[in-house]
Structure prediction request, 255 residues.
Amino acid sequence: MKTLLLAATLLTTALTCAWADDKAAAAHGTAPHWSYTGPAGAIKWGELQKDFATCKLGTKQSPIDIKGAAKGNLPAIGFNYGQTTAEVVNNGHTIQVNLAGGGDVKVASGGYKLLQFHFHTPSEEKINGKPYPMVAHLVHKSDAGKLAVVAVLFKEGKKNEVLEKVFAAMPAKADGKVELAGGVNVANLLPTKRAYWAFEGSLTTPPCSEEVQWHVLKDPVEMSKTQLAAFKKLYPMNARPVQPLNGRSLQESAS
Prediction:
């Protein structure tokens, strides 16, 4: 199991360095410290290092304010998730759950394997100008190395069983890692109805790489006020501001 988790962690880090921890990146001389506010905050990312220039110059950046979407001939997302061993990581920017073999999805652009999921509060995506209290980003990779994200929005309500398990295990300090007892099935994090908005975007943290296929599920799931407070005790705010659409296609699935 440890070998599988290590492989998943290394693969995720190599392909989505925006969600790797700063210490590992700095060891390779690739990333200075960055944050969401202050001198190294989101509005300054593109100026921190030349490799982060896309954060400032990119034209297909994420997140966005989702409004005015056109009805598209989009297929239903084919979710094929299953029970897997998992590792909960505090990477210094969020809580991330690395998965040894979480399954895969099939979307309009092809098939992608699920690598990890992590959280932002408030939701980075806004819906008609308003954020949700939290969002989980489910990160996937295709055999060709392309990335696709499925975003699950959260509203306050009843206790969420998946979050209860993950948040009980989350390390309080950056660089902390904990094996998630019993593993997880990410299918249990999804809403019953799975209509979605789709657009082409980017990673939402440095280096803000583009050509990421985004799928934001329209129906939120519930989490308790206590669960939200537990996460915000570690990360009170870790959301990038919304970015211009710049003429991109924003589509809405029929179901």
In short: Residues 2-252 form a domain with the Carbonic Anhydrase II fold (CATH 3.10.200.10). Residues 6-31 have pLDDT under 50 and may be disordered. Residues 198 and 215 are 5 Å apart (CA to CA). The longest strand covers residues 110-120.
